[in-house]
Design goal:
single chain, 473 residues, alpha/beta, Rossmann fold, six-stranded parallel β-sheet, 20% strand, globular, binds adenosine-5'-diphosphate, binds alpha-D-glucopyranose
Amino acid sequence: MEIIHLSAECYPVAKVGGLGDVVGALPKYQCKAGHYAKVVMPLYITPFLNKNEWTEDFTGHTNVGDRWFDYKIFKEKNNTLGFDLYLVDINGLLDREKVYGYDDDSERFTAFQIAFLHWMNHWEHKPDIIHCHDHHTALIPFMMKYCYAFENLSDIPTVFTIHNAQYQGWMGWDKSFYLPEWDTWKKGLLEWDGLLNPLASAIKNAWRVTTVSESYLNELSYQSKGLEQLFEMEKNKCVGILNGIDAEVWNPATDLFLDHHFKIKNAAKSKGLIKDELCRKFQFDPSKPLFIFIGRLVAEKAADILPDAFLSTMYLFPNRLNILILGSGDELVEQQLLKLSDHFKDHIHVEIGYQEALSHQMYAGADFLLMPSRVEPCGLNQMYAMRYGTIPMVRNTGGLRDTVKDMGEEDGWGFLFNHASVEDINHTIGRALELYETDQEKMKKVREKMLRFDHSWENSIQHYMEVYESIIV
Ligand code: ADP
Ligand code: GLC
């Protein structure tokens, strides 16, 4: 089966969060399973671009609204990622250093999608599936059906995966002229709540819709930033498929970012050595438990309550633990966290920024990982933590609920709590401290249990294949 994935991110080419991880892994494992999966994404100015070899595959000329542009399609030469990777180069629009965050993002990503369809119009064959990820590629299902220029493509089945419905790509109707001429009778298929809503349009127009855990799919019907009713109406074409993790990249036995590797037998020793290194670097006492938080410092992740929560932690549990935070996002939260770490130097350290290597060392060297997310469609951090024998402390929501079982239950291995609140976080830190201080034997058992988990992509791939097969004509 030939599957084309369209995405704004793909690890290691460009990654901001979990979307990048998923689009870097899913096609690789689809190829391993004998399919022909490819990724098409924008060409940004990233280190990956300079480190690899490219061939120019196609040159075209098209427009987004009244901006006419030339675009080029570059193909990565050596199958470095385990699948064919194509970059769409649009001078002046896509070729920037950051993935998102520019005022003209709507125009940039609409141009990307138009260039892709313009290019595909020239292919001699048709792929079996077009698989779009998140709102940056969400206009494709509509355009394939109702833009006159792409009517040749309307019989190719489309799948849309929602990684995060918090971001919908909303545009005013004044931007509708970005799209090549379309059947205006179909305006309702682009619209939600008076706006041009790319995410809503993909839910309406894609042949099937998936999201990244079953619990999140259920939550979307009552909590999805205004799309609740739409999910309720379209639920028959939606399915929740839990993400896998790239067990080759995230492997404690071979991880390129670690100085000490481990399997079950030597986990205690190697994890201890990695923890020692982290503690030396950040001047913590390694005999105390190490709690970590990694992620975007935004409201979805409940980052805004971390400063208050950790301030209380310092008073409730003085000298009993250390906290290491890696992330970036809301500036106020960044400032508050930095101030806190300044005040409690011996117990809290904050690294603002994006550091892939440090994140691996933290998953491996920590004792506990905290994820109090208000919304978590799947969540990969908790799966990486478990893969490295680190105990997850997560809010009972979305994919966190589907991947972590509380220790209070038979055979449980993590901590679940219900509210993104200072109280719940500290109650859970208290539970974790008790475990660490009084029952190392249980910690060892739980760690060994987690190290045996298999969250690899093989299972999820099968579910995606079933979705594809249900729509291939
Ligand atoms: P989301 O996609 O919502 O941000 P996920 O849990 O799915 O959340 O994935 C987050 C990914 O981004 C993980 O691979 C995590 O390790 C990584 N990550 C997030 N923030 C940072 C950071 N500051 N430095 C390094 N990696 C980070
Ligand atoms: C999103 C979600 C996260 C999920 C990731 C990959 O960014 O916020 O929960 O794990 O996509 O699907």
